[in-house]
Write a structure and sequence with these properties.
The chain is α/β, with parallel strands linked by helices. It has a single domain, classed as Rossmann fold. A hairpin with a 4-residue loop joins strand 6 and strand 7. The structure holds S-adenosylmethionine. The site of S-adenosylmethionine has 19 residues, from helix 1 and helix 4.
Length: 241
C-alpha cells in the first residue's frame, strides 16, 4: 500500500497529481509541443478520426487539462456538444480562451470533475474521451466503471495514452528519451524537475496495450481494440459498451 505522503516513483496519488498539474498548468502547452516535437497534434487528430463522432454526438472529455483534445474534437469532429472536465481548475482555465475563440457548431462547456467519480446520470454520453489522463488515476478500475456507466448502449470510451512500443530498439530509444529529455526540459520550463520525473516514471509504470485492453474488458466493455501510433509510443484504445 502506497501512502499519499510517500508514494513510489510513477505511482499516481490524488495529492501528487493535483499538486503537479496546478503548478505546471501555465507551461503545460509549451512543454507538450516541445517534448513531442508537435506530434501530439497529430495524435489528437488521429484520435478524433478513430472516435468517429458525428454532428449528433454528445461527448464528455475527462482529464481534459488545457483542452487540446476537446478543441481537436470540436474543430475536426464537430460533435453536438463536449463537456470538458478536469479536477484541477487551473488546467481548465488555460483551455477556456481556446473555446471562447472557437467558431463552429459544437457547444463546449467546462466542469471541475474527478474522472473516478462522475456526477452524471447513466447512459448520458455517446463518446467519452481521455487524453494522457488515465495514467494519472490512482483508481483506474473506478474510472473504467464510471465511463461505462455514463455511456449510452453502443457508446465508446476512447483512451489516448502513452504505451509500450513493440519493437525493442524503439523502446530502448524511447525510454532513454523519457529518462533524459522529459525531466530536464520540464525542469527548464517550470523549475520543477521532480514533477517531470514523476511523468517519466508514470509512463514507464503504465500497462502495455494488451493489459490495458484486458482491464477494460473486466470493467464490462464488450469490444476493445487499439491502434498504435508512432511505433506504439502512444496507443488509442476504443472500448465499446
Ligand atoms: C497530462 S494532462 C492531459 C491533459 C489533456 N487531456 C491533454 O490531452 O493534453 C493530465 C490531466 O489529468 C488530470 N487529472 C488527473 N487525475 C484526474 C482525476 N482523477 N480526475 C480528473 N482529472 C484528472 C490532470 O489534472 C491533468 O490536467
Amino acid at each position: 500500500m502506497v501512502s499519499d505522503e510517500n508514494p513510489a516513483p510513477g505511482v499516481p496519488t490524488t495529492d501528487r497529481v493535483k499538486d503537479i498539474f496546478s503548478l505546471i498548468a501555465p507551461s503545460y502547452d509549451l512543454f507538450n509541443i516541445l517534448s513531442s516535437f508537435g506530434i501530439d497534434r497529430l495524435w489528437r487528430r488521429t484520435t478524433v478520426r478513430l472516435a468517429r463522432p458525428d454532428h449528433k454526438s454528445v461527448m464528455l472529455d475527462l482529464a481534459a487539462g488545457t483542452g487540446d483534445l476537446t478543441m481537436a474534437f470540436a474543430r475536426l469532429g464537430k460533435p453536438a456538444s463536449i463537456l470538458s472536465t478536469d479536477f484541477v481548475p487551473e488546467m481548465l482555465e488555460v483551455g477556456k480562451p481556446k473555446a471562447a475563440a472557437y467558431r463552429g457548431p459544437t457547444k463546449i462547456a467546462f466542469e471541475v470533475v474527478d474522472a473516478q467519480d462522475l456526477p452524471f446520470d447513466d447512459a448520458r454520453f455517446d463518446i467519452v474521451t481521455i487524453g494522457f489522463g488515465v495514467r494519472n488515476l490512482p483508481d483506474r478500475a473506478a474510472n473504467f466503471r464510471e465511463a461505462h456507466r455514463v455511456l449510452k448502449p453502443g457508446g465508446r470510451y476512447v483512451i489516448l495514452e502513452f504505451s509500450r512500443p513493440p519493437m525493442p530498439i524503439v523502446r530502448w530509444f524511447y525510454h532513454l528519451y523519457l529518462r533524459i529529455v522529459i525531466p530536464n526540459l520540464g525542469g527548464l520550463l517550470t523549475g520543477d524537475k521532480p514533477s517531470f520525473q514523476y511523468l517519466n516514471d508514470s509512463i514507464r509504470a503504465f500497462p502495455a496495450q494488451l493489459a490495458l485492453a484486458s482491464e477494460l474488458h473486466t470493467a464490462g466493455f464488450r469490444k476493445v481494440n487499439w491502434h498504435n501510433l508512432t511505433f506504439g509510443v502512444v496507443a488509442v484504445h476504443i472500448a465499446e459498451v
